[in-house]
Amino acid sequence: MALTGVEIFKLLPKTNCKKCGQPTCLAFAMKLAQRQASIDQCPDVSEEAKQKLGEASAPPIRPITLGTGARAVKIGEETVLFRHEKKFVNPCAISVKISDNLSQADAGKVIAGIMESEIDRVGQKLRVDAAFLSNDSGDASKLAALASLVASKAPELPVIISTTSPDAAEAALKPFAGKNAVLYGANKDNLEAMAQKAKDAKAALAIAASSLDEAAELTEKAKAIVPDLIMDSGARKAGEMLRDNTYVRRAAIKKGFKPLGYPVINFVGRGDSMLETVVAVLSVTKYASIIVLDHLEKWQSLALFSLRQNIYTDPQVPMQVQQNIYKVGDPGPKAPFLITTNFSLTYFIVSGEVENSKVPCRLAVLDSEGLSVLTAWAAGKFTASKIAQFIKESGIEAEIENKELIIPGYVAILSGAIEDKLEGWKITVGPREANGLPAFLKSRA
Amino acid sequence: MSFAPPKETWSGKTFEITIGNGAKAVKIGGENVFSFHGFEGNYPNRPVIAYEVQDIPPDDWPQMVKDVYAGVSADPVTWAKHCVEKLGAKAIALRLAGTHPDKGDISADQAAETVKKVSSAVDVPLIILGSNHAEKDSVVLVKAAEAAKGTNALLGKAQEANYKTIVAAALANDLKLIAMSELDINLSKQLNILITQMGFDKERLVTDPMSSALSYGLEYTYSVMERIKLAALAQNDAVLQGPMLADVGMYVWKVKETQALEADLPQWGNLKDRGVAWEAVTTTSLLVAGTNLAIMRHPDAVAAVEKFIAEMEG
Ligand code: B12
Ligand code: SF4
Fold first, then answer.
1. Cβ–Cβ of B268/A302 closer than 8 Å?
2. Distance from CA of B272 to the nearest CA of A (A)
């Protein structure tokens, strides 16, 4: 829980020596409270005060990184309950279960599926983030064999090792030493041994509790051995997950309750992959940091990646694409030339429809601060002069033969003004809705 | 260690609205907590899913949804009965799509005829929707409302451009009313105020903050809904205490993800499941955000959402 300026002031030396650059200790305390200064700037502060301040300024939900290198993902560190208050910080990691009962060939297929899951969406690369290696067999050697298979086939892939046996954990973690793996399965009976194994492999430890009470108890015990903790409250039904995830998020953020200030893992596996998908919706929207799926269907990944992307965008800053003239297909000098705004949704829909038309085109995307066509027009970010300036400066005139620009139907009103400002150009008003584009473009071809 | 769950109870609550008459009438709203938060407060009514039925054949729906209704969709009465009797629909949303000037321009009188036939053919509550052409709706919905007098149906949608006649029609025929504005909590509030100033009881009003499909602006609808629910509960803002509607199917079944063939986009997986998932995921996330009543098209998507609701309760 963040401290107030006055609370911080009480912890300072109160000498007003100015060495921190502030006129008084109180002024410095106020800066600290607003996070505009760092405690290290006061040379005389006591160790005890430092520690108290450090604890208070730590994020309410501990950040944890899974994996290393290009596929590493960070989870936790959330600060709010509702996305309209402030951007949700670290998108939940999606993981897929691989049972150690599977044959090497079948396990290999799941690993390959995970590695091929990457989809490019609105400029972001989305993919299954981790593999969840499950010791369903109860046999330590089978889990170890699966672990080495994953390590050899997908050395970059973050893993979560699931077992309740410390010995099985040790063997399975070996290929991932120093690679920020997660060990899942610490319970009240094996806690210390599991924590030690996680520590030895420099892995995070995931608690498998049967209630929030127990989760809080176990994290308090485990944190002395491993600081990076993740929690499963034992909730399995969607309604229970909503309840527990909500309590955890509130307790950590609103009450500063440290024992639950860790990322949450949810298990949504269901025999029916469609039901599994909708249950995962609950986890994506309501506060899970790791989601474990049983299935790995392409349509399922696409839907869940898209949802995660929607929920984790910044509500203040619409997703944007870069101002540029994009080519769709392989447009020649006579290909149609269109313009739109840089709101990613607008770009996404329009470029999709241009693609559908199978007519190669050039698509100019004007920086309109991420606003849709009408919103940008209403806000003065998609005006005749901005459009004319962009076209002139883009150098496109040298590249094309027909100086004709197709504008969105909703801003037909701009056509005269653009013609006035862009000498020698013809402005054509396109359809209002992008789904009219294929017919429109084909009829001109 | 004993952990005291940080429960949140609110002073405000949403209005409970009944739609329809008799044994199959449905109740929505009435909660003093966020959706599915029965663990900390009063959440008396599970969300209701209505099946969408149109007055004209669904020619512009994707093939996979058209196929589901092949053989019944040529006639709205047969179609509605199929949804109720075969699919177990708890409510029917009858969209008078054919009244749109570009889609046949069916007259208001003819539309009213359709409303009459459908409402006497099914015993579940009816939601009566125009074609979303503001001008035409203000004529069509007046006649439709007369035809639905006494059914306690839900009429919509009243928008800023046409609310006056539609509100008057709902008032005169004792119907419930949907007020829709475009993805802005202040616009919703303003429209609801205008409507109540006409003497329409706010306890009979359903708010539609406008839906959007997964990946096509869903986050806007999601957050506007959360904000409206928060205003209703935490700020006890009576104007925003109506239950919320999500008209999902019409947004979902026109996006590329519900149409593109797997042959063209193999990394997107099979179209059948993808389309169903798109509608089910969109609806589910909006239920979590605060929707009390959703309108959907594909029975498999409805089934998935109903299973989700059951898991949330049990
Ligand atoms: C979401 C939204 C917002 C969001 C912004 C979202 C964003 N990133 O742009 C917020 C809440 C911030 C917002 C703010 C405002 N908004 Co606003 N907003 C909307 C809303 C509901 C949806 C816009 C949207 O996302 N559309 C989806 C995208 C994909 O549509 P699009 O860009 O137009 O693209 C389509 C077509 O134009 C076409 N197309 C696009 N490019 C091209 C190119 C070619 C060549 C062709 C042929 C076709 C084509 O294809 C696309 C799909 O069919 C609309 C209402 C509505 N239903 O449209 C109002 C709307 C656009 N907003 C409006 C207004 C007035 C504003 C504000 C000025 C004030 C206000 N009412 O809040 C502010 C201005 C913001 C600012 N910064 O100053 C008005 C505009 C009225 C007008 N005609 O001038 C609208 C129409 C609402 C209304 N009826 O009042 N808004
Ligand atoms: S350096 Fe420390 S002791 Fe000196 S004024 Fe700043 S806060 Fe106070």
1. yes
2. 9
A64-311 belongs to CATH 3.20.20.20: yes
Does the model's pTM come out above 0.95?
no
How many Å lie between the centroid of ligand 1 and the Cα of residue A371? 7
CATH of the domain at B307: 3.20.20.20
How many domains does one find in chain B? 1
Cα–Cα nearest to A41, from A52, A59, A27, A62:
A27
The domain of B129 spans 17-312
Cβ neighbours for B67, distance < 8 A, ≥ 6 positions apart: none
Does ligand 2 come within 6 angstroms of the Cβ of A20?
Answer: yes
Q: How many CB pairs under 8 A join A and B?
A: 149
Which bound ligand lies closest to the C-alpha atom of A19?
A: 2
**Closest to B53 in 3D by CA, of B297, B302, B301, B303:** B297
Query: DSSP secondary-structure letter at A398?
Result: G
Helix/strand/coil percentages in chain A, nearest 5: 45, 15, 40
Q: How confident is the model at residue B1 (pLDDT cuts 50, 70, 90)?
A: low
Return the CATH number of the domain spanning residue range A5-57.
Answer: 1.10.15.40
| Residue where the block lists tokens 């909500």 | A246
CA distance A146 to A390: 56
| Res. A215 pLDDT band, cuts 50 70 90 | very high
Beta bridge partner(s), residue B182: none
Q: Which ligand is nearest to the CA of A373?
A: 1
Does B11 reside within a domain? no
Architecture of domain A324-444: 3-Layer(aba) Sandwich (3.40)
B65 Cβ contact partners less than 8 Å away, ≥ 6 residues apart: B58, B253, B275, B297, B298
Is A13 near ligand 2, meaning CB less than 6 Å away? yes
Residue A198 has pLDDT above 90, yes or no: yes
Where does ligand 1 bind, in terms of residues with CB under 6 Å? A 318, 338, 340-341, 343, 345-346, 349-350, 370-375, 377-379, 406-410, 430-431, 433-434, 437; B 182-184, 217, 220
Identify the three-state secondary structure at position A338: strand
Instruction: Give how far B304 is from chain A: nearest CA, Å.
Output: 6
Residue B130 lies in a domain: yes
For A81, nearest residue in chain B (alpha carbons): B226
- Is residue A220 within 8 A of residue A176, CB to CB? The reply is no
Per residue in A341-376, pLDDT (tens digit) is: 999 889 988 998 898 889 999 999 999 999 999 999
Distance CA(A394)–CA(A385), nearest Å, equals 14
- Domain residue ranges of chain A, discontinuous segments joined by +: 5-57, 64-311, 324-444
CA distance A17 to chain B (A): 43
A317-335 pLDDT, tens digit per residue, is 888 889 999 999 899 999 9
